Amino acid sequence: MAGYVYEVRPENMERITTPELANKFIDEQVKALKKQIGNGKVLLALSGGVDSSVVAALLIKAIGKRLTCVHVNHGLLRKGESEQVIKVFRDELKANLVYVDAVDRFLDALKGVSSPERKRKIIGKIFIDVFAEEARKLTDVKFLGQGTIYPDILESKGVKAHHNVGGLPKEFDFELVEPVKFLYKDEVRVVGKALGLPDNMVYRQPFPGPGLGVRCVGAITRDRLEALREADAIVREEIGKLPKTPWQYFCVIPPFKSTGIKDAKRYMGWAVAIRAINTVDAVTATVPEIPFKTLCTIRDRIIATVPGVNRVLWDISEKPVATIEWE
Ligand code: XMP
User: Fold this and answer.
1) Which of 47, 135, 136, 145 has its CA 20 to 30 A from that of 274?
2) Domains of the chain by start residue, with CATH
3) How many A from CA of 211 to the centre of ligand 1?
4) Are 71 and 95 in contact (CB under 8 A)?
5) How many angstroms is it from 161 CA to the middle of ligand 1?
6) Percent of the chain topping pLDDT 70
């Protein structure tokens, strides 16, 4: 891969705050992409997050089917995420999308692993392996699309913050295509909206690369992971209805059971924790008030519909001292 060129946002670059400015940016970028890529082909890892989705939509506008998007389902995505990537990019935008179901591969490798750092490393490594395998199946691809945004350059020299992932193997010598590398997150969202991407993709809350893997605390088991995914969807739906939504809100499942009672018999079930925080930069975080009625609705829905869960907790810890994620 071509060495990373450390660049600075041009001083006179206008902040993209309106649909008009976004459209102007889109026109300019489509022209620049056509010029950079010529008749070449581009490969892009498409997670469904706002950055890679905006890059995909820009590239589709510029080069259509000469872009190949690879979406790797590692089994740690939130409910409905892979389905949405397929619907938006394959069905609606007619993208050339390779969907890789790598769920068993990831979950088998994670079996019995409880260290958060080991989990992150395994997820990162298998992701690269799977992506490299797909890249090898393609011919004549010279370019690699990346959803690098300006904070990635400022904070970690062009690597998405927090990625415990090495780069692609040396055999790949891609030239990078990074059309949103000078944009801040809010600008990427304005551009995404102007490109017609759905709101729940454009305004998606930050989601860690290792996904639900770091929210299924300790060694991941399939039953706990499924319970987490279902409970998380309920938490996001109910808190998402509030007039002002927190910066990040999700669900965590700890690796212990506690006593419940069903049909007059005691039994052991999982507990899930609601986590909702506000922050500016994720370095410190506060806990916003959540109406008690919303908490009760979440509790009732989870207890009634999520198999194996008999207890719902609300994590009111601030950062510091608690981190946002539990792992
Ligand atoms: P913590 O838990 O350190 O999280 O307070 C701060 C922010 O970073 C996100 N986070 C991650 N993002 N890969 C990511 O891409 C990771 O391994 C990871 N761990 C934490 C977290 O969701 C929060 O927004």
Assistant:
1) 47
2) 19-202 (3.40.50.620), 215-315 (3.30.300.10)
3) 9
4) no
5) 9
6) 95
